[in-house]
Amino acid sequence: MVADTRLRIGLTGGIGSGKSTVARLLASLGATVIDTDAIARELTLPGGGAIEPIRLAFGPEYIDAAGALDRARMRTLAFSDADAKRRLEAILHPLIGLETERRAAAATERVLVFDVPLLAESAHWRTQVDKVLVVDCREQTQVERVVARSGWTPDAVQSVINQQATRPMRRACADAVVFNDDLPIDALAEHIRSLASGWFERRH
């Protein structure tokens, strides 16, 4: 069996940090990006692999009229009930893991980027990647960005931030940190190009 010599990068950051922008920049440089949040959303669409397990575990009221997960209702439950959050994760995480590895196996590029919002909270993920890239910014910036793009209230955004790893926790597991607060997009792109060129070239 031929060893997998591809570079595996774990990309993480809090809500509103600009992680998705960094993922797009890495993709433009030739990496395959595997977005675990997108996989989770696909699994909870009508006919998705998580729908029936969620229906059985939480009841039909958590499935909307179209057959998808009622995300707003589940978000409210998960943020207020730690046991419910654990039960949901026990359904989703194995399915996400299987689909993530399926996509990784099918990818042909030499660099794989795993976009994982909860990477810092997972000892498993740190062992699955060669490098961890953290996108960081002030909490106030996170709140302002998410309110502007989603219409959520500041309190709703803050409740999500409070559920995620702290900024020091994320930085502690990083091989590199991008501080993306007031960074213009051109400067961010140049920073990612410089970082990626070093990581990518050393892997060849």
Question: What do you see in this structure?
Answer:
With 204 residues, the protein is of the alpha/beta class. It contains 10 helices and 5 strands, in the order βαβααααβαβαααβα. The protein has helices at 19-28, 36-43, 51-58, 71-80, 82-106, 123-128, 139-150, 154-163, 167-172, 185-203, and strands spanning 7-13, 32-35, 111-115, 131-136, 176-179. Strands 2-3-1-4-5 form a 5-stranded parallel beta sheet, with helices on both faces. Helix 2 (36-43) packs across helix 5 (82-106) and helix 4 (71-80) packs across helix 5. It starts with 6 loop residues before the first strand and ends with a helix.
SSE diagram, text form:
Blueprint (H helix, E strand, L loop, with lengths): L6 E7 L5 H10 L3 E4 H8 L7 H8 L12 H10 L1 H25 L4 E5 L7 H6 L2 E6 L2 H12 L3 H10 L3 H6 L3 E4 L5 H19 L1
Short précis:
With 204 residues, the chain is an alpha/beta fold. It contains 10 helices and 5 strands; from the N terminus they run βαβααααβαβαααβα.
Following the backbone from N to C, one meets helices and strands in this order, namely EHEHHHHEHEHHHEH
Using only CA atoms, what is the Rg? 18 Å
What is the terminal separation in angstroms?
A: 19 Å
What helical percentage do the residues reach? 55-70%
**Beta content:** 5-15%
| Order of the strands making up the biggest sheet | 2-3-1-4-5
Q: What overall form do the CA principal axes indicate?
A: globular
Q: Which structural class is indicated by helix and strand composition?
A: alpha/beta
Q: Please count the beta strands (DSSP E, at least 2 residues each).
A: 5
